[in-house]
Design goal:
By secondary structure, the protein is of the alpha/beta class. It folds into two domains: 234 residues, 3-Layer(aba) Sandwich (Rossmann fold), CATH 3.40.50; 109 residues, HprK N-terminal domain-like (Udp-n-acetylmuramoylalanyl-d-glutamate--2,6- Diaminopimelate Ligase, Chain: A, domain 1), CATH 3.40.1390. It has 14 helices and 17 strands. Helix 10 links the parallel strand 15 and strand 16. Helix 1 crosses helix 13.
């Protein structure tokens, strides 16, 4: 069975999400696929080696027994590209990618290979997605974000590069398609892809539950101080309020699972937020900005509320600006999200076409 290479048109299109869903589907059909991200740009220290964070995710979610390094043989460390350009020798890296793939095939009948960005990413050091797919004799599924014109244009570019490396593209999966436009976009993009020589094999609707994050993830990502409420850092955030207006207006804007961002010296807005949020301690959280310590009079109220409160030395503007288009990688503990991805792929992707093509 051929390897399945999951490519994309841009970063953050949903390669990891689609890979998680497909891996679960293939396992449900009796296969035992392996996983590899040959070229990783965002790595962490795992089992005493630099392993791409997606490799760690799959290793943990599926309890894979493979050596983690086989899932992430090439970690792009700081200065990597400069060193390669000054001493361009791609052969050792290619050899290592092939070796790790062969090791995975000793335990698995096939491997899902996750790419990095669009087809050309990695060209600066000789390992574009198209080249890696060619190297491993893989067939490709391209993931792109929902829309019509732009995704088709971007797919056309990727198709050209994959064709230049004699790599077969099975088809395209649209991701994050707005539910109210789902049918129209799916139909139109399906026709448009045929015009450029490929096909639509799936369209995943936008699901807000997959984009939620926790107060703890914010603290970890931006190194915010946890002032109190450490036991509630798992609180989910679905909405954000910048509490720089009068308290009565803040009151109207706090809903379920709301994160309130307010200067640490705004006692009025802190108290109003606390009043609403403390009705349910699993509901949202607070970020106090400007480096202001809470006033001694309200400190006991904050600590007894059970609400997670974070502190930042930065301005309210800087903290709130980070919230725009904020996205977090799925973690191994996000079991509900992982299961939801299986459901979305099962209901909206022609996985049988993918499996049949890999067998042909």
């Amino acid at each position: 069975m051929k390897p399945l290479y999951i490519g994309a048109t841009l970063k953050d299109c949903g390669k990891t999400s689609v890979s998680l869903g497909l891996m679960q589907m293939l396992k449900a059909r009796g296969l035992d696929p392996g996983y590899c991200k040959p070229v990783g740009q965002h790595y962490v220290r795992y089992h005493e080696k630099n392993i791409d964070e997606d490799g760690v995710l799959f290793h943990q979610v599926f309890d894979l027994k493979d050596e983690p390094y086989y899932l992430s043989p090439i970690a792009i460390e700081r200065g990597f590209t400069r060193k390669f350009i000054n001493n361009p020798d791609v052969a050792p890296m290619e050899k290592e990618i092939v070796r790790c793939h062969q090791e995975l095939l000793k335990k698995h009948p096939m491997v899902i290979i996750e790419g990095t960005g669009h087809a050309g990413v990695g060209s600066c050091f000789g390992l574009s997605n198209a080249r890696v797919a060619e190297l491993l004799d893989a067939k490709v599924v391209i993931v792109t974000s929902g829309g019509i014109g732009r995704p088709i244009d971007e797919i056309a570019l990727s198709l050209a590069l994959f064709a230049d490396h004699d790599v077969e593209v099975i088809g395209v999966i649209l991701n994050k398609v707005l539910p109210e436009k789902y049918d129209a976009i799916k139909e139109t993009v399906g026709k448009g892809l045929k015009l450029i020589g490929t096909r639509l094999i799936g369209a995943l609707p936008y699901d807000r539950t997959l984009t939620t994050f926790t107060v703890g993830q914010l603290a970890e990502e931006f190194n915010y101080q946890v002032f109190c409420g450490a036991d509630a850092l798992s609180n989910v955030i679905e909405d954000t309020v910048i509490a720089a207006m009068a308290p009565q207006n803040v009151l109207q804007r706090i809903n379920t699972n709301t994160l309130v961002i307010t200067p640490g010296d705004r006692i009025d807005n802190i108290l109003v937020s606390l009043l609403v949020l403390s009705k349910d301690t699993t509901n949202g959280g607070l970020i106090l900005t400007g480096g202001f310590e809470p006033h001694p009079m309200i400190e006991p109220l904050l600590k007894s509320s059970g609400i997670p409160v974070l502190m930042s030395n930065e301005s309210t503007f800087k903290v709130s600006a980070r919230m725009k288009d904020l996205g977090f990688k799925i973690r191994s503990r996000d079991t509900a999200k992982v299961q939801r991805l299986r459901q979305l792929v099962e209901e909206n992707v022609d996985t049988q076409v993918i499996q049949d093509t890999l067998n042909s």
